[in-house]
Amino acid sequence: MRGGVRTQRPDLPRQAAYEAVAAVHRDGAYANLVLPAILRELRLFGRDAAFATELTYGTLRHEGTLDLIVGAAAGREVARIDPPARDALRLGAYQLLHTRVPAHAAVSATVDLVRSVAPGATGFANAVLREIGTHDLDAWIGKLAPPYDQDPVAHLSVADSHPQWIVRAFNEALGGDFDETTRLLIEDNQRPPVHLCARPGRADAVELAEEVGGAPGAFSPYAVYLPGGAPGDLAAVVEGRAHVQDEGSQLVAAALADAPLTGSDARWLDLCAGPGGKTGLLGALAAQRGAEVTAVEVAEHRARLVSQATRGLPVTVLHQDGRDPLPEPAFDRVLVDAPCTGLGSLRRRPESRWRRSPSDLPPLTRLQRELLGAAFTAVRPGGLVAYVTCSPHLVETHVTVTEAARRSGLPVDLVDARPHLPTGMPGLGAGPTVQLWPHRHGTDAMFLALLRRG
After folding, report:
1. Catalytic one among 197, 272, 340, 390?
2. Would you call 390 a catalytic residue per the annotation?
3. Among 123, 130, 252, 322, which residue carries the largest CB count within 10 Å?
4. Residue 1 above 70 pLDDT?
5. Which pairs count as long-range contacts for 354-359, CB under 8 Å and 24+ apart, including other chains?
């Protein structure tokens, strides 16, 4: 007691989650970058670290719907609640509505958290949390979401906590199928698996899976699924025999490397290489085939990451804009892993769904078209270009490819990408491009178009 006022520090897992969520909103941080440092600082391991991680990522994934519920329970918009109390209430609401934490424990622990970060709001927080606890999640959605049969986009936005414009974009990319859109949104809110890439020539996926206690991937011959833990600490990753990479990213990079090519096949180009995952796989494949990779990256710190990721591989890193002329063009294979909205990896970066907006699309799609046009110039006649985005938005995929080809003035033709993915892989559509999906393939929503220059 101090001056008659009870002072109690929040328990450490909740404190860690609060600090991570607050950094995301206050500093524009990414949870996957700040949370590990917070866990180390607070010395949280095992179940405590897992609980802090669940609270952090769960709260960020469901933030839109949690804000509606907190606002309704508070009788005011969440924007009018002071940020420290607001973030604490989000964490408390998540515990009440999405976890098995007993209601009294969720309320008590969150009030303690508010007492430490916004002392003047403890009574307010207690009242709001108790009001939230009067209904379960389904009841709140029933109160706040429009009926599905009247407005399916708005309903799904609340029920599955995605902005309406993203729900609409997913639905358009899925051909207007709302049942499949619902499955995608549900999968988007699940904790994503950790995938490793066993580097060809340095590791075998089956042997690596046995070494790390994981399982070989379903589709990529290089993929290993991990049960959890800290993959960066694995000996195979430290030694450069493997790296962390979503299976979908492995598949699209391997498709470019494996597609048949007539003529020379010794000079490969990665036009947007940072942070180096796909470059690492291409470099390992190139080493087995006597080829060399030129990796271009405009950001200096990301260029350094590419250099670190490809150490010992036949990769030359150039720190320059991918749209600028290259010293020696006429590459045989070119990868354009274009900057995009990242809507295909919302499982891994849940805060992105609330940061992105439709206004991001025009500058991004202009950049995508310009990079793809530069790739058409850099590839030799008969060579292959792979255009890849981690977004299923039609403007970033089909429209970008069509417009870039139309504006380039060079003869380029789409190649059916489906035969260059593993045999028997389901749900690849009618071609010639390929869209991978979390709910169909267990991967990020990677898009792939293969084009051959005439």
Report:
1. 390
2. yes
3. 252
4. no
5. 354/60, 354/63, 354/64, 354/163, 355/28, 356/163, 356/166, 357/163, 357/165, 358/165
